[in-house]
Amino acid sequence: MSALCSEPQDTLALIIDQQNIDVVISNNLKEINLGPWEGKTKQETLLSDPQQYHYFWQEQDKFNLAGAETYQQLQDRVVSKLQAIFSKEKGKNILIVSHWIAIKAAVAYYKSTPLSDLSSLPDPKNGEYTILSEPNTQIKKAVRVFTLTAFLFNRTIKRLGWRRLRRCLG
């Protein structure tokens, strides 16, 4: 599974490296829509709306820029797609490639971290590994972040190296 943008697709291409693996592109895994801030530098966004800039980086639950997606909308969109994937692909190895903020919003959901505390979560790092539980259940999902934009969910994998991932997916 991959987001529509080219960066996640490029990451996915490097990971699967010409193996015969089904790839599904989903608009629901794309990065947060920043509306009028799309394509702007940090400095330009800061100057255009200092309050929303602060909210975007520090108090994500309050971010509500006109024409942009809120963090709650982002989280709802990404988690809804992930839940559909997990339901459909039960027991299979699934590689999800997306973007940093989309991943962080999903991780917050699975760790039951409110969006008001999103900035307290560490940013996804290359090769990071963690076990997540679906809120209010004992269902475990292993997560492996291969780049700042890629992660793997699987219910049974305890540890998974790069070569083993490629064997599992191939």
Jot down its keywords.
single chain, 170 residues, alpha+beta, four-stranded antiparallel beta sheet, 6 helices, 4 strands
What's the layout of helices and strands?
Layout: H1 6-16, H2 42-48, H3 50-57, H4 71-88, E1 94-97, H5 100-110, E2 129-133, E3 140-147, E4 150-154, H6 162-169
Antiparallel strand pairs: 1-4, 2-3, 3-4
Task: Give a description of the structure.
With 170 residues, this protein is an alpha+beta fold. It has one domain. Helices cover 37% and strands 13% of the residues. The chain contains six helices and four strands, in the order ααααβαβββα. It has helices at residues 6-16, 42-48, 50-57, 71-88, 100-110, 162-169, and strands spanning 94-97, 129-133, 140-147, 150-154. Strands 1-4-3-2 form a four-stranded antiparallel beta sheet. Strand 2 and strand 3 form a beta hairpin. Helix 2 crosses helix 3 (50-57) and helix 4 packs across helix 5. The longest helix is centred in the middle third of the chain and has 18 residues, at 71-88. The two termini are 15 Å apart.
Strand content: 5-15%
- Protein structure class: alpha+beta
Would you tell me the overall average pLDDT?
73
Largest sheet: 4 strands, antiparallel
Strand order of the largest sheet: 1-4-3-2
Topology pattern, helix = H, strand = E: HHHHEHEEEH
**Number of E-type strands:** 4
Shape: globular
Radius of gyration (CA) equals: 16 Å
Instruction: Point out poorly predicted stretches.
Output: 142-166
The first-to-last residue Cα distance is 15 Å
